[in-house]
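Issue: ligand-bound run for adenosine-5'-diphosphate - logging full I/O for the record.

Environment: standard queue, default settings, no custom constraints.

Inputs:
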Amino acid sequence: MEEVRPNDDEMFESMLCVPESKLFTTGINGVTFEDVVIFVNAGGGKIEDQDSSTKIEGDTHFEGGDAIKTNADILDTGNLPSALYQSARYGTVISYAFCDLPPGNYFVDLHFAEIVYTNGPKGMRVFDVFIQRQKVLSEVDIYALVGANKPLVILDVGVNVEECGQILVKFEGVRGSPSISGICIREAKKTIAPTRTFLKSGSHLCGKCASETERSPLQDRVVLRYERKIQDLESLCKHKTDECYEAWMSLTDANAQLERLRMELDTKLFHSDSLDQDIRIQAEKLESVSARYEGDKRRWAAALRGLQEKVELMKTEQAQLSREAHECASGVPELSKMIAGVQALVTQCEDLKIKYSEELCKRRKLYNQVQEAKGNIRVFCRCRPLTKEEISAGYSTALDFEGAKDGDLGLSSSSSSRKMFKFDRVFTPKDDQSAVYADASPLVVSVLDGFNVCIFAYGQTGTGKTFTMEGPEQSRGVNYRTLEELFKIARDKREAFSYDVTVSVLEVYNEQIRDLLASSSTSSKKLKVRQASEVPGIVEAKVESVEEAWDVLRAGSSARVVGSNNVNEHSSRSHCMLGVRVKAKNLVNRECTNSKLWLVDLAGSERLAKTDAQGERLKEAQSINKSLSALGDVISALANKSSHIPYRNSKLTHLLQDSLGGDSKVLMFVQVSPSENDYSETLSSLNFATRVRGVELGPAKRQVDNGELQKTKQLLDKVKQECRLKEETLRRMEESYQSLEGKLRNKDQLCRSLQEKLKDLEGQLQAKADLRSSSDRQQLLQVSEALKAKEEACSTLQQNVKEIENRLKEQQQSAMYTVKDLECRLNERESREYLLEQKIKALQWKLEEVSRRPMITTQRGEVEVEVEEGAYGRILRASTIENQGGAAQTESELLKGVEPLQHVKRRRERETGNEGFNGNEIKERRRKSLAPRPSFGRVTRAATTATLPTRGAAAAPLKLPARGQDKERATKIWSR
Ligand code: ADP
Ligand code: MG
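Outputs:
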């Protein structure tokens, strides 16, 4: 505890007006407050401190002023609670009146602390304190004494309380408002002299310390002077204090203004901060933009450099191009030369095409000649194997196939002698479908060449007609294979030809035509054959592949099944006809053809036992007989080149009219059974087929030992062989020619496209001579190279074509030579024949002469003349049957003494008006007489063996049987 004694400091001394009172500038410690009457906490509440025994009441007994509190720490409060100094009452005038106190002596303690103006200057708050109207403290300035928030304590201010029982403590401001933190009233054990009452006379009470002093008048004057001085000083001090206060107030204003300015500055700072931030962001943005700009700049610079390089490069290229363009321009004449060359090649190609079509025509003619040489009606005989039933029944084979390779077939039975038949081909039971078809396939070429073709199977039921024509699925027959090849060839030739193929399926039953492709509604319609074998109203399905065609045929077959009760029986009683129409268009010369192919599975040819034939069956049998007979008649008439061909005798022949006669080609499969049980039917079928083929080889004829004839036959076979070979080579040549043509066409097209390209390039050259690119130049080079290559290819092609042409010509010539050679030989033979005839005539005449002479007796004899008409004409052979040697003798006898034979002959000729005929004239005559016959015709008349009596008939010139007679006989054989 720091006690400030008034003596220690003048200021304190001048402040304390009551003697014995003590002033402390810090809190009081170690002082015990005894006899406390009341202790109030001015401006605050009641304080109950456990540690101290002092009880401090809340603020009471006051008058005026306001309470004020602070949270600031109050330092050095001693053993009193700091809360006491944290509150205060302040105001311009404050007073505390403690009443009802017993009269006596009391001590009053005053506790101060500057908590209002903590940072104020000294002299801000200066006040006087009065107790019982006596000034006890004068001009207290708390801040000046202890500073802010520090206790200032005045202890033991003695007060004497009289009857009124009141202690009045009053605070009056000198400057500013007084403030008080606590007042403590204690009972005083000692007596306190009353202040005023104790003042002696003549003594002076100090205005400061209230001490009573005695003084002299001088002293009084001095005191007065001093008092005046003091007053002056006080007024000066007051003035200064006022100034100070004003200054302080202006300072406060300035502070407030400063605060405002600080606030403004703060806002400005904040604003500037935000602005700074903005600027920073903008700066960052600017940086990124500038970085980007730098990158872009670099890129653009690089691009610019690249572009500059490119420009340089382009400039050099342009210079090069312009040079090249100049070169190209100088090369244009060469180019036009090339074009001219290509055009020449194209014209050559056109020529070649024309030549090719001419060659094609020639080939076709030759092919047809070959076909004609073979005969337009060809007959193949096919024999099926013995069935299991036949084998188990023990039937043996009635046919022998020894000469099958040469087309010979023998038929024999236990009851009759062996009969020989000759056909174009004989297929044994071992021959399979493909072998059978191989010989029929050339006809497909004819169909595509525009010829009508008819392939039919004839024979007894169960001999394999359907097998040959249709065949089972695993081994297809002629129908399927023909269609397959038809489409194959059409496909191969599609570059030169366009084909349009339609199929129709018909059935002829009981002389009625049924369209098997017609829908059920139209199928009941009666179909009639009109002009040129056309049947109006039949369905012709357009097909583009063999599969489509086969589907159509299957549809037809199923329709056939639907329309009948017993399929097998019905099928063997009706003719099934598959018609294929081919419309071809030559894309080179625009020639169009319309040809027809008939594939016919005929009804069974077997004869019904007369007892079986009744009702419907009889009608069926009659219809079949009628149609098959009509077929035989038609073929026979065709073979005989009869002026009238009886097509209209049956529906079958009427339908086939345009495929049987004229230029059309016919192939007949005669199907036979090998079983001896079917001997008679087989014989009948073979006879029919032989009639169709036009050659009948009887057993007698085979045994004739005719050397010349044999030779001729051999020759004929050889020629046939050659023909076949030529045909083969021709076909091959045609194929190679076609492939060459195809290649040529391709090259042609290539040339044309190249030409077009060339034209384009020319145009570009003229338009952009200075901007021509190197690729164009390369293209030009390529084009010229390609052109050269094409030229070479064309020249090789031309050579090839020429070679082929030469070969073809050679072969044609050789064929022509052989044909001519054969013709010459034939002529020779004919002239020899004629001479022989003449000789015979002369001999006959001689004989007659001799017989007329009675004195010459001759031995009678018979002359057998055999006239045979072979493939190249007739060969007449004469021989004396009885005695050839005898005849010669007769002749020699006749010659004896009579005119020589030549003379007789000459006379005879004179008589008959044949005088003057030399060898050539004879040949000419023979040729004329043979003229109507085909020079290579296979269809020949049957060999005739005539036994001529030497008498009577011998005088008549020897003639072949007339056609009428032939026909009569034919009809006899055909009719059943
Ligand atoms: P068609 O039509 O003349 O009445 P099919 O064609 O129906 O006779 O033939 C009768 C039977 O003979 C069938 O079972 C058939 O398979 C058989 N057949 C016919 N020809 C041959 C052959 N060349 N090879 C094998 N079997 C055959
Ligand atoms: Mg059949």
